Structures are given as structure tokens and as C-alpha cells.
Amino acid sequence: MNNKEEEQQKPSIYSLQLHELKEWLTANGEKAFRAEQIFDWLYKKRADSFEEMSNLSKGMRQKLDENFKLTTLTTAIQQTSADGTIKFLFELHDGYSIETVLMRHEYGNSVCVTTQVGCRIGCTFCASTLGGLKRHLEAGEIVAQVVKVQKALDETDERVSSVVIMGIGEPFDNYDNMLSFLKIINHDEGLNIGARHITVSTSGIIPKIYQFADENMQINFAISLHAPNTELRSRLMPINKAYKLDDLMKAVRYYIDKTGRRISFEYGLFGKVNDQIEHAEELANLLKGLKCHVNLIPVNYVPERDYVRTPKDQIFAFEKALKNRGINVTIRREQGHDIDAACGQLRAKARKEELKS
Ligand code: SAH
Fold first, then answer.
1. Who's near 326: CB < 8 A, 6+ residues apart?
2. Whole-angstrom distance, CA of residue 171 vs CA of residue 212
3. Where does S-adenosyl-L-methionine bind (predicted)?
4. Which of 48, 67, 128, 283 makes a 20 to 30 Å CA pair with 310?
5. 264 CB under 6 A from ligand 1?
6. Given 30, 99, 138, 319, the catalytic residue
């Protein structure tokens, strides 16, 4: 094996939870408390190399370097939008690329992370699934996205205040890595991002919804619903053929009962497909009495897909129809339009350019 291959096979140091790092250290003849020092270097001082970790012995720094990767992402593109949104295209060690977006809100800076290279869910409107799934991301590759963005914000003394797992990929299809990621960024010795400031979204992998409910983390939870009945949902999202709407709603009720938390439903408005008042009425019936919130997303145009935008008046009428029936609803504010900030768009463009050349 040459050096490059060896380098690639090392796990990312960012994949380890604090207790796992302690276990590794004690198994390697070091003191467990060194783990806190290493976390401090990684997440508070945001070191670029093991070499910098000056309160560790040289031997130990060398040992860490031999066993772990610290750099897992290389910034290929960083684009800033007029509204302050920053889109990053990161290259992974094996040449694949992923995207991460920093969104600026009045309440703080929010990072949208990717969990997989591509996606195998096949939603008919989504750019991320074009080309299928290439591989899962390691927990550390997800953590490193937040660290990278935080480092960019360090320049202006700002902080990442919230994280949404709504980038490329289906987080519940890479469940264990996603969970480690959550625990690492949430840990107070890690990035210390509060559970209530983290949101995970799934297309509806039902067994994992039950598992997630049982984790009992105070994380915000969203489901990509997009349709008020099972026939229409199956047309838009083939996953509904395996995990049907009725069963999905049962899992949702379980989650709400178990955690006491409100759930969010994402509902993309696709012109003439699911955006009529009848759909709003049906949706209100489906969600009646549930502790929930609906987030309406005007469709993001994807050149490979032929969905069209719902006219503004119709979006407001749809919102009103839900409100009148007692459903909590908001319309998603759009950001970063000028920089392909919608999921998978920058990567899709980069992929196409790769295919051309
Ligand atoms: N795979 C997870 C995480 C992605 S979150 C999930 O499906 O929930 C990104 C959200 O944007 C999802 O609700 C997704 O369905 C939605 N989305 C994807 N492509 C879109 C498009 N072209 N227009 C509007 N919303 C889209």
C-alpha cells in the first residue's frame, strides 16, 4: 500500500465521540483526560493539524497523526450570495464532492449539511438523487462540514448557531453516522450546538423514525411529506411505495407521544400537481389534531425535472386554506437563489461539467 492509500484509509478524528476517543487513548497507553484536550484543539481552537496541539507530547501527536486524518474536506468552491448565504463545494479524499450551505437569519447562522454522496431515495423532484448514491459520509465528514463553516465565520467573529441536516442525502439511510454526528456537535466539549438548534429531516424511513423517537434527543424533527394522500405521494416520492403514508403517520404519532415534541412537515408546492385548494383541505384533514407545523417550499427549479412553480397568489391561498383549518404553517423564505443554493444544485452542476469534460 502506498502512502496515499494509507492516508485515505485512516478514519477521521472528527468521527469520534468524546468517550470513543477516551477509549482509544486508554487502549493506546495514554491518559483518558487527553481526550478533552484534543476536543479543545479540534472544536474550540479549531486546529488545522495535530502538530499544533502543543500541550500533547510530540510522540502522542505523531501517534494521532499515524492513526487519524484531520483534514477530510478541501474547499473546491466557496460562493457568497447577495443575501449573505455562502455555498461550499467540498472535495472528499476520494474525489467525490459534496455541498454545504451557510444561511444567515436574524436569529443566527445556520449550516445545512450533507450526509451522503448522492442519494438512493429517488424523489422525482430532487437534484440530489440524480446519479444515485455513491457512498455514505463518515460521521467525521459531516462534522468537518460544520467545523469548516465555523472556521470561515471565525474570520468575522461569528458563530454557527444552528444546524439543519437537509443537504444532499437521506440522513436516516446513514443512521449511525448521522447519530454520531449529532452527538459530537451537540456535546459541550464539542461544538456545543444545542439540540433545539439542530433539525433533521427524513423522506420517511419508518423503522428509523421509531428508533429516533426512542433516542429521546431534543432535536427538531422534520418529515418531507409533499402530498396529502398516498397515491400522490407515491407518484412524487417512490419511497412511499415501501413506507406508506398511513404507516408514516402512525410513526409520526409515536414520535410525538414519545418525545412530546412538535413535528415539522415539509410540503413542496409543485405547480398543478399538489398545490390546489383541494390538496390543502386534504392535508388539513390528514394533520388535524397533530402537534405539528407545515413548512411550504416553493419548488426549486431543477432543469432535469419538469415541475413548475406555483404562482405567488396560489401559494398564499394554499397557506390561508391551511391556516383557516387550524394548521400552523409558514412559507419557506428562499435564500441564495443566485448561487444554486437549493439542495444538490451546485453539485449537480459540477457533476454535469465533469461529464462534459
Ligand atoms: N433526504 C432528506 C433530507 C433533505 S431535506 C429528506 O428528504 O427529508 C431537503 C428538503 O427539500 C426535502 O424536504 C426535499 O424533499 C426538498 N426538496 C428537494 N428537491 C426539491 C425541489 N426541487 N423543490 C423543493 N423542495 C425540494
1. 284, 288
2. 11
3. 169-170, 201, 224-226, 300
4. 128
5. no
6. 99
Count of CA atoms in the C-beta half-sphere (13 A) of 254: 16
Query: Which residue owns the Cα nearest ligand 1 atom 7?
Result: 203
Sign of CA dihedral 171, 174, 176, 180: negative
Ligand-binding site membership of 240 (annotated): no
What gap in Å lies between CA 43 and CA 188, rounded to an integer? 10
Please list the pLDDT of the chain residue by residue as tens digits (357 residues).
Answer: 456 666 668 999 999 999 999 999 999 999 999 999 999 999 999 999 999 999 999 999 999 999 999 988 999 999 999 888 999 999 999 999 999 999 998 889 999 999 999 999 999 999 999 999 999 999 999 999 999 999 999 999 999 999 999 999 999 999 999 999 999 999 999 999 999 999 999 999 999 999 999 998 999 999 999 999 999 999 999 999 999 999 999 999 999 999 999 999 999 999 999 999 999 999 999 999 999 999 999 998 788 788 999 999 999 999 999 999 999 999 987 666 666 655 555 566 655 555 444
Answering whether pTM is above 0.85, one says: yes
Considering the candidates 30, 112, 138, 343, report the single residue annotated as catalytic: 343
Tell which phi-psi region holds residue 126, choosing left (phi > 0), alpha (psi between -120 and 50) or beta.
beta
Q: Is 292 a catalytic residue?
A: no
In this structure, the chain runs to a length of 357
- Those residues whose C-beta lies under 8 Å from the C-beta of residue 159, and which sit 6 or more positions away, are 108, 109, 150, 153
Domains of the chain in start order, with CATH, are: 17-67 (1.10.150.530), 81-352 (3.20.20.70)
Tell me, using a 6 A CB cutoff, whether residue 201 lines ligand 1.
yes
- Closest residue (by CA) to atom 5 of ligand 1? 166
Please tell me the residue having the least CA distance from ligand 1 atom 9: 166
